[in-house]
Each structure stands twice: as C-alpha cells, then as structure tokens.
Amino acid sequence: MASLNSINKSTRLFSSHPHHQALCTRAHQIAALALIIATFFLTRFFDHTLGPCSSPYRNSYSDANQYNAQNDVVRFEGASGYGSHLNLKIYVYDEDEIDGLKLLLYGHEGKISPEACVKGQWGTQVKIHRLLLQSTVRTRKKEEADLFFVPSYVKCVRMMGGLSDKEINQTYVKVLSQMPYFRLAGGRNHIFVFPSGAGAHLFKSWSTYLNRSIILTPEGDRTDKRDTSAFNTWKDIIIPGNVDDGMTAQNARLVNPLPLSRRKYLANYLGRAQGKAGRLQLIDLAKQYPDKLESPELKLKGPEKLGRTEYFQHLRNAKFCLAPRGESSWTLRFYESFFVECVPVILSDQVELPFQNIVDYSQISIKWPSTRIGTQLLDYLESIPDKSIEEMIAKGRKVRCLWVYAPQSESCSAFSGILWELQRKVRQFHQSAETFWLHNGSIVNRDLVEFSKWRPPMPLP
C-alpha cells in the first residue's frame, strides 16, 4: 500500500482545491486497483481478438514464439514500411503494344512456347507475368499506374535457341526506347524479372539501361564471374525459386515427408559437382561417411538420370538438406527442402534470401561457413537433438507458403509477398536526368516538349 499512499499524497499536493478534496478510503484504493487490473486484461483481450498491429513474422531474434502466427498465416500487413493493405496499381505491357516484346517472350517466329518455359528454375518469368494479368492490382491505364511490368521469358528463350545474346541486348534496347513512362522516371518504376543465376546479366547492357529499375531475381551475387553484381538490395527484390508444382500442391504431392525416425541419412547433397569447391568437398565427404551423408552422382540424361519423383524421394530421406553454392550463390534446393521437410543447411556465404523483413531464417534453417565443410559440419549436425529439428521443421511449414507461386487470392504466397515488397518501392514523384518540370506542374523533356507529346523512339541513357 505504500505506493498507493504515495500516489494519494502526490494528488493532494497538486490539488487546486485541497479543502474540498474527498477522503481516499481503503475502499477507494481497492476499487482503483481493481480498475487497473480490469483495464490490463481487457487490453490483452482486445489485442488477441483484433489481431496484432505488426506481423508475427517480423525479424526478431529475441522472440522465440514469433512463428506462432494467428491461423498459421504469414502477414505482411502492419509490418514496418508495408502499410495496412495492398494499394498498388501495376500496368502490364501487352505483347502487341511494343515492337520487339514478342521476341523477348517467344523468340524468332514465336517458336518458344510459354508452356515450355513455365517449368524448371526459370518458370518464375512466366508465372509472375500470368499472375499479374489476373491480379486485382493490374490497371489498364498507364496514367494511374504506380509501377510498370515488362514481360519477358528471355532466359528460357535464350536456352532454347530462340535468341542469341547479341539479339537479346539489341531487342531490349529497342523495346525500352518505345516506352515514354520508362523515360519519364529513368526506369525507376519499371519491373523486370531475371529468374536465373545470371540475373540481369542476360541483358548485357543492363548496367546502362536498368541500373535504376526494379529487378526481381533469386540471385543476389554474381561477383564470382563478373566485376559487378546486378542485384542492389535497396531497389531490387529477391524472389523464391520455382519449386516443382508437383511438390507445392496442397493435396496430391509427388512425395510426402518421412518421419525423422525413418530417414536413412543425417544429411544429403543432391546436385552436380560443376567443378565447384564446396560441392566437390561434399561429394568427397560422402565417400568417407556414406552412412551419414548421401551424395549420389546425378546424371543429366540416360537411364541413370533421376526422375522428378526419385529426386524428391532421395531428398526427403535425410534430416538436413545441404545447399552449397553452384554457378551462383542461390540454389533451388533451399526452397525444395521445405516441402520434403528437411532442415536446409546453407553453404553459400553470399546468398540473399527473400522477404527478410518478415522471415527470421535463423529459426527455420542453418547457415554454415562454406570454408568449414568437413567432419566438423557433420559432427555439429549430429549433435542437434531431434526435438530441435522437429521444431525447425514445424516453423518452416508455416512460411513455406511464401515459396509457392499461387494466385493473389491465396492469403500467403510468393506472389503476394512480391506485391507487398513492390508496394514499398512506390514513389509519389518520378524524375530522371532527362525529366524536367515547370511552375504549372507540366513535365517536359530537355527540349521542353510536354510528356503527352513524347514519341518513340526516345533517346535512352
């Protein structure tokens, strides 16, 4: 009661009319204390009823329960910088609208089919395009658009012989020169997808023309082969890789996870060596410890080639799935591991991961120095109790929906996550070195021609 008495004394000291003040009895004190307690519990009740103000998936290393999301749904809304709801307008360029765009989509004579491009690691170029066409954020009015999407299946087209590197470069420059809104903002409000390890380097002149644009890519580093990485953490967005649809389906999956007790191996690495140091070390380690680490030599063709189902059957047979760097820092194996429910172990130091404002990767994966691949790694993994492994897998189940390219109607998907990330990139005002404005708000070019009268082809940087 000492604290309550001191409060009462303070009240009497600062009363403007002390001679009229009512006496504070013990009954008053008990009532005040009851009111405080009631207010506390009512506040807690409404907090839980109405939901949290910020995402339960915020990156907080001190909150061990942050993955206990309401209804197991990942939420971007309310998290810092995202806003309370999606309020985004994206214009998608039509393939007939810009001369040359069809070449970037289908190659010469339209020989490359979208169905051929939607499978495999590069399928995100097709999937994101299709999802945007059906999305509620799509607008058909350029003047009300926040952002502009430039569709292209150029990685697939190149790999299938539809365009050469030189033709890709020339076609991109031609396409960009026909876009007044690209010129208006210096490309800052235009979105491009580059779905492979090469990133934007597929367009040789990307550093000249797309150095301000928003690039969607799974690859955050290619400095191993080039002086400059095409990924910029402040403007670009890391996207999940394209996991086989047969594994992301809600009901009929190619294979289902095994209980930990039935898994044959401690860890596995399923991939080609490609002459990469980390991969070669894992293959050698598997030969030394065949009972702990599985690393079969994968064949790209012939009777010994692993089929889709066989590949995932191998992948699910270990507690940990090792994901070393290959030709580039990202690896599809990281995302695949969540659907066979093995804990991914990242062995790629420069890797960039998607949605880092929302997901705390330290709770659902392990990142181990690529310079320490060896028996120390196996000893460490072997020391982790099954209970901890199960907890990491359980948390991974709650976020793996973010690796699935599902329609916007799904409450949690890679596409929805990308839209939320794009919303953070929207600017109220657009300008570039070749954009000027007058006292009446008119936007003009260097020759003082108003924006509405700009005609292609327009000069580019």
Widest sheet, order of strands: 2-1-3-4-5-6
Shape call: globular
Reading the helices and strands in chain order gives: HHEHHHEEHHHEHEEHEHEHEHEEHHHEE
Distance between the amino and carboxyl termini: 75 Å
Number of strands: 13
Structural class: alpha/beta
Spans of at least 5 consecutive residues with low confidence? 1-22, 43-71
In words, what does this structure look like?
By secondary structure, this protein is of the alpha/beta class. Among the domains are: about 90-240 and about 425-430, no CATH class; about 250-405, Rossmann fold. The chain is about 35% helix and about 10% strand. It has helices at about 1-15, 25-50, 100-105, 115, 125-135, 155-160, 165-175, 180-185, 205-210, 245-250, 275-290, 310-315, 330-340, 375-385, 385-400, 415-425; strands at about 90, 140, 145-150, 190-195, 215, 235-240, 265-270, 295, 320-325, 345, 365, 435, 445. The strands form 3 sheets. The chain has a 6-stranded parallel beta sheet with strand order 2-1-3-4-5-6. A 5-stranded parallel beta sheet has the order 8-7-9-10-11, with helices on both faces. A two-stranded antiparallel ribbon has the order 12-13. A hairpin with a 5-residue loop joins strand 12 and strand 13 (about 445). It is globular. Its main location: Golgi. GO terms for molecular function: glycosyltransferase activity.
